[in-house]
Amino acid sequence: MSSFQTGHIGLNVTDLTKSLDFYQRVFGFTTAGERQHEGRRYAFLFQGSTLMLTLWQQSEGRFATARPGLHHLSFQVADLAAVQEAEAVIREIGATLHHDGVVPHGEGASSGGVFFEDPDGIRLEIFAPDGAGDRPAPTSGAPTCGFF
């Protein structure tokens, strides 16, 4: 059997300009290939030479968390300092932040991060593999990322 790894992630957005600004500021992604086709706009976002996200301006409303489909996107960083840098930007731009900042993934876990939303309500996580264990877990008996 073949070995699989995640490639890029494609997201439908309502306002490409707003989403580009958000993902560039929070994640530091660079834009390559913003285009328009038959009135529809789209863009490719990279981290270095790696395609990370494609954004497609072709939706309306807010992300529907009560419907089947995507639960959240999670991005790992090297350490808790990088999580805290992202948290500062999230707070600065006024994005919805859950759990009021950095929390562990669960009771007794050393890994943890921030849980927040993009401009369309898509749930996101930035985490580090350790360093968050001294904080209280917001959810008892279940993974923090499961219920936000």
Automatic annotation (TrEMBL):
<protein>
    <submittedName>
        <fullName>VOC family protein</fullName>
    </submittedName>
</protein>
<dbReference type="InterPro" id="IPR018146">
    <property type="entry name" value="Glyoxalase_1_CS"/>
</dbReference>
<dbReference type="InterPro" id="IPR004360">
    <property type="entry name" value="Glyas_Fos-R_dOase_dom"/>
</dbReference>
<keyword id="KW-0479">Metal-binding</keyword>
<feature type="domain" description="VOC">
    <location>
        <begin position="5"/>
        <end position="129"/>
    </location>
</feature>
<dbReference type="InterPro" id="IPR037523">
    <property type="entry name" value="VOC_core"/>
</dbReference>
<dbReference type="InterPro" id="IPR051332">
    <property type="entry name" value="Fosfomycin_Res_Enzymes"/>
</dbReference>
<dbReference type="Pfam" id="PF00903">
    <property type="entry name" value="Glyoxalase"/>
</dbReference>
<feature type="region of interest" description="Disordered">
    <location>
        <begin position="129"/>
        <end position="148"/>
    </location>
</feature>
